[in-house]
Amino acid sequence: MRAWVEGIGLIGPGLRGWRDSRAVLAGHEPYVAQPVTVPASDWLPPAERRRTGLAVRLALAVGREACEHAHRDPRTLATVFTSSGGDGDNQHVICESLASATRELSPTRFHNSVHNAPAGYWGVATGSMENSTTLCAYDWSFGAGLVEALTWLGQEQQPILLIAYDTPYPEPMHAVRPLVAAFGVAFVFTPGATGHSVATLEVDLSPDAPTGSLPAGLDVLCGSAPSARSLPMLHALARAAATTAQVEYLDGRSLIALCTPC
Length: 262
What we know:
Layout: E1 2-12, E2 15-16, H1 18-26, H2 46-51, H3 54-70, E3 78-82, H4 88-99, H5 107-113, H6 117-126, E4 132-135, H7 141-156, E5 160-166, H8 173-176, E6 183-190, E7 199-206, H9 218-222, H10 231-238, E8 243-248, E9 254-261
Parallel strand pairs: 3-4, 3-5
Antiparallel strand pairs: 1-2, 1-6, 1-7, 5-6, 7-9, 8-9
Helix pairs in contact: 1-10, 3-6, 4-5
């Protein structure tokens, strides 16, 4: 599978946007973990903005950065959303409500519990009516989302936006599903080179699990959330040199991604 990378968005611990994080991702500056802050999106009407949780805000923020980096109107892009668990805070509150004596459930809570809720908010925020897919593949959700996006790109020959995001669960769910911090990443892929292309991406399937190395600190962060498994690819893109990255995929296999700067 082959694609051109036109735009990138990124939010994670100590990673505040693609442009501000490139030196760290490339290993030119040390990684320093910091709390994740995600602002509410001014793309949404006030009433909708108040209903959004961290997962929606994170998905919208990285998607917006990727579109702005690519100089693309988000209304024109098909989308793939991928997350291992969606909105953990919202699920926690729903479980508390169902375990209480009254068992009353807020309609907004139920609405936001649907796995494709961020895709719905994206449509409201941008006005996009393009094709959208939302999926989940547990720890391998980023790799599955990447394959889905590149497969669609190859078939339709139209640009597509991939958004991957994860947010931590509160206790007691955190004890059995420990996601350390919120992490979100987005890519605009195109079927051919444009004036804003950052790199070419050639992806193939390997029978081997990932064995590559990352700069100190990023190697630990890579295992903190499924969407953070995009870090080998981000590291390769940030180096601005032809670099091969391995991304975890299903059944103990990996995706081999050759990133070549334009």
